[in-house]
Amino acid sequence: MDQGVAITGMGIISAIGNNVAENYASLIHEKKGISRIQKIDTIHRDEIMVGEIPVSNDEFIAQLGLPQDNNYSRTGMLGVLAAQEALKDARIENIDAYRTGLVSATSVGGMDMTEKYYYDYFTNAECQKYIIAHHAGDSTQKIADHLGINNQLVTTISTACSSAANAIMLGARLIKSGKLDRVLVGGSDCLSKFTINGFKTLMILSDTYNTPFDEHRKGLNLGEAAAFLVLESDHVVKAENKNVLAYVKGYGNANDAYHQTASSENGEGATLAMQQALKVAGLNPKDIDYINAHGTATGNNDLSEGRAFINVFGDEVPDFSSTKAYTGHTLAAAGAIEAVYSVLALQNNIIFPNLNFKTPMKEFNLIPQTKAKQKELKHVLSNSLGFGGNCSTLIFSKNA
Amino acid sequence: MKPVYIHSVASISAQNTVDETAFLDDLVFYEDNVLPAIDPNYKDFIPPAAARRMAKGIKMGVVASKLALNQAGIDKPDAIITGTGLGCLRDSEKFVSAILDNNEQFLTPTPFIQSTHNTVGGQIALELQCKGYNFTYVHASVSFESALLDAELQLKNNEATNILVGGVDELGDHTTELFKLIELIKTEKVSSKALLESQTKGVVYSEGANFFLLTNEKDEKCYAELIDTAIFNTLKKDNLPTAVETFLNSNKLNPEHVDLLICGHNGDVEHDDYYEVLTSGIFSDTQQAFYKHLSGEFHTASGFGFWLANKILKTQTLPEAVKLNHVKNSEFGYVLLYNQYLGENHSFTLLRKC
Lengths: 400, 354
Hints:
The structure holds two protein chains of two kinds.
Chain A: E1 5-13, H1 20-28, E2 50-51, H2 57-64, H3 74-89, E3 100-105, H4 111-117, H5 137-147, E4 154-157, H6 163-176, E5 182-189, H7 193-201, E6 222-223, E7 225-233, H8 234-239, E8 246-255, H9 268-281, E9 290-292, H10 299-313, E10 319-321, H11 324-327, H12 334-348, E11 350-351, E12 373-374, E13 379-386, E14 390-397
Parallel strand pairs in A: 2-6, 3-4, 3-5, 9-10, 9-13
Antiparallel strand pairs in A: 1-7, 1-8, 5-7, 8-14, 11-12, 13-14
Chain B: E1 4-12, E2 31-32, E3 34-35, H1 48-53, H2 56-72, E4 79-83, H3 89-101, H4 109-115, H5 119-128, E5 133-137, H6 143-156, E6 162-169, H7 173-181, E7 190-191, E8 205-206, E9 208-215, E10 224-232, H8 240-250, E11 258-263, H9 273-279, E12 287-290, H10 292-295, H11 302-315, E13 334-341, E14 344-352
Parallel strand pairs in B: 3-8, 4-5, 4-6, 11-12, 11-13
Antiparallel strand pairs in B: 1-9, 1-10, 2-7, 6-9, 10-14, 13-14
């Protein structure tokens, strides 16, 4: 368990761009991707805002060159696009040259098609191809198939909003322990009526732009996205003379064990996850230069996470921001989206702004970074907190 | 690296498996294509008010986890790792139907909350106040093995001492109808005793929960030692013998060391030939067993196979009903499990007597 875990490639598609370069440009130009929903017919259209990718399924099918009888869910298509970019970025041409696994994450899976054809399945044979694409592992299999990953360790994690962070964590552990030489890790989730209505019933959807860590925050905007990172062992990095973007230095997962959906007010789960990640990384709290917060802009999350910052960092909470105001909350993909943003922050020595913030929360004196800030960054910490009390922290570092 | 032991086993299935002291001595034979799991007395484990809010999968998972923890005498494991192919299907179906039937109005949050794939893992943690590592794997027929692999890594590397590992899946009425529609489920009813003679497409579908307490500290009560687990998204039939040999070799073993091969035959005429590559090939002289005629097929049915292997190793007996051939072994030292579903997501799991 003493191997380094190098990140050698990244790919992303989100409401603020179809690739890494576009996402970075939007982040530094404060260009958010939040709008009224276009592609899903919902009665809530005028009450919610979302981070929707402005590309239709038909356009994706054409872009990916899929046959007309394909049974890809939107989750699958987003995942393939992001994973392809990551592989290309890592300059991997022969996928079979090393033991290359895939760990993906999703919460929606094929639900977008299931909810569309739920009753039609019984009368329309043409749509029945999607029945078998419902389960959460299907999009992962599609990605593996598209990238030519065969005879390998391929699996999927679904722990709600921390899923992709956990996929990155498992990937790092598989590399560290020598089970794999190389692994693609990340997640994908598309928008669906299922999640829109689910979060609507929980009354945590904002009717306007989400405002992380603001006293008057009204809830989250849902988003859709996919992102993948290529993790490689020291051996592969050396043998192939790879360009390393950053390292996965620390990780921690803990359970809040407080409530099925809500986070504890004292932020215990997030505190434990951050402490565990620091321990694995062999770092002290003062070593963290920037926190990419989970910061969903719900009343509950931002309070709980903020308290957890204070638990871990005391009076010296590092610069922090949530990028959810750009992308919306992309659920199972969020941990991978924010992993890409954390690596971009390290590469460019920049802290991305927490948009839409105006009023500090009354419970504590924590003010997010609201303007892009140039600063030498060595270690970035990223949180992902989810239903079922699932709390995850990743630490990304410039050096091994 | 530390060894990994299975300290306790618990199964809720279409068979009478809840009583730990019994071992398939009161078999239930079905003539059907869908087999609901036999309900334990949930009231003995879950307060009735809480049980009413839980769908069957959650209840099965909670009870099986309690049984496994009680037997092992562990109050709070270091980690909880679950696998589920289709997650909390009943709540998912309930929420989708409500959205569609009422045009997105009059919805209540409970089915949405409980539809999340990690509901069972989260519920167990909540009840035990277990704040440790908590993962849920959702990758079709390797969901359970992914959980097993994760636990194996942590225990071998001494990152944890006690880990609760389980697989759970539940039947959902709507999904069952859809699976019949596309013949994932056999269109005809099949006798448990004649599953392999069916010669038809599809499987006999079921549900269940199989939970285990894994530890890296040996105890006289331990069922078996987990040597290794491996998963493969694809494997061609031609490559199967090499893949299994490579797996055994990586554990310094050969096919001759295997005393019992347990296969995941499910009666699907289109995919059972994967097993035959091994049963009539390199393991033709090895004693063989199968179990899905008893448990039915579902994404985490291989958890029942894992339960079976542990029982065999501890009791050193092989129930007549699971025998696949007539080769006899005096002792069961190494047991190898092989499973796949629809020709995808293959797994090898190797156990040893301890």
